[in-house]
Amino acid sequence: xxxxxxxxxxxxxxxxxxxxxxxxxxxxxxxxxxxxxxxxxxxxxxxxxxxxxxxxxxxxxxxxxxxxxxxxxxxxxxxxxxxxxxxxxxxxxxxxxxxxxxxxxxxxxxxxxxxxxxxxxxxxxxxxxxxxxxxxxxxxxxxxxxxxxxxxxxxxxxxxxxxxxxxxxxxxxxxxxxxxxxxxxxxxxxxxxxxxxxxxxxxxxxxxxxxxxxxx
Amino acid sequence: xxxxxxxxxxxxxxxxxxxxxxxxxxxxxxxxxxxxxxxxxxxxxxxxxxxxxxxxxxxxxxxxxxxxxxxxxxxxxxxxxxxxxxxxxxxxxxxxxxxxxxxxxxxxxxxxxxxxxxxxxxxxxxxxxxxxxxxxxxxxxxxxxxxxxxxxxxxxxxxxxxxxxxxxxxxxxxxxxxxxxxxxxxxxxxxxxxxxxxxxxxxxxxxxxxxxxxxx
DNA sequence: GGTTAAATCAAGCGATCGTTATACTCGGCG
DNA sequence: CGCCGAGTATAACGATCGCTTGATTTAACC
Lengths: 216, 216
Known about the structure:
The structure is a homodimer.
Chain A lengths: L2 H21 L6 H8 L3 H7 L3 H28 L6 H13 L1 H5 L1 H15 L3 H25 L5 H19 L23 H13 L9
Helix pairs in contact in A: 1-2, 1-4, 1-7, 4-5, 4-8, 5-10, 7-9, 9-10
Chain A binds a DNA duplex through α1 and α3.
């Protein structure tokens, strides 16, 4: 594959990443992708097999960057002994939320895309997503379980999932225009960086006492 | 409007509510709605003006039921003095998550639809949503702010938004197949009721210490 | 230069999309 | 009875959808 072919492939991936993130999978036509990528429709079917194949490729590439960073950060954390809950949450959140700072505009697209994928209908994409990042996430889950000896593994897993979801929602700005105005929003309207807020809130999730068992 | 006309309208609303919740707005065609509702395509444009008008109507009806319940529960809570954080979170979560128990299968559709709306692209729907439930949510926000005197209003608002998002994600089962297998999932695979887990985790969000200020 | 395979293109396939114009049915009112 | 408006059904509009085909370009190799 020539260098120009790879360039075409990447232009398609870039366009799809942005548009899927902005309008969702079902809401994005292949024509829209080819237009913004300045590419012919057939190239999509040549490089990827179908629209879903394109989605898979985009998801793989998008997750790769944050997966690497998460592995690296966790390695670094573990060399200094068993990491605490807040350290783990911070590492996880920062690798997701700071994509913008680390990768510029592209990072924003990646973040939005990843967030969107988790909310899209059809569990197939979510499962692909889970499989793609399973290795990293498994490590974080294990570390969190070890850092929370008082909590059963199932409970930690539940809260871990919740953390992933919250991060996704914030990455796609789904919560931006949610609360009614005039209730303290104006205070932080010029929102600087929510990362620290997120870390604090998410750490609170893990530190909460265990829920009483409920008979099913 | 005759009684049969109202029946048609409701059949359309029911079908749209379910399908929008399952496949999303962009992923649901009007034909699919008319087929499951056993109605002609034109009736949609007669009763509602367009596809988006249908969405608005569905959103209004879906939110009405939980809004009422939330108002009622908060009233009841306030007559017994200022409610605590966990009480407030519980009231909010239960009214959302227990729709199934209170309304049967219909409740499941409502819950899924509401969850989906918050994750759909296009902020218009989210804003409509926020406007629709703004009154109730404002009350909860106020009560939470009063129950958390140590936290600035903006911080409470941020965490409140997070809570709404988490509840939505759980209502649409978006977090079900997320974590990799073999990490404590099997323990609670036969998931009974997550409501108590949710309440515990979400209460933890509000009880977390304030994040340190970060210079923007 | 001729051959071959990778890569891109224009054009169009059938299907389905949201939407609309039009005709029909039917109960209430004069 | 005739009329009318609310409500439903038929049929189709143009646009766009995901996807395919067949020709054309490009570059590497003998």
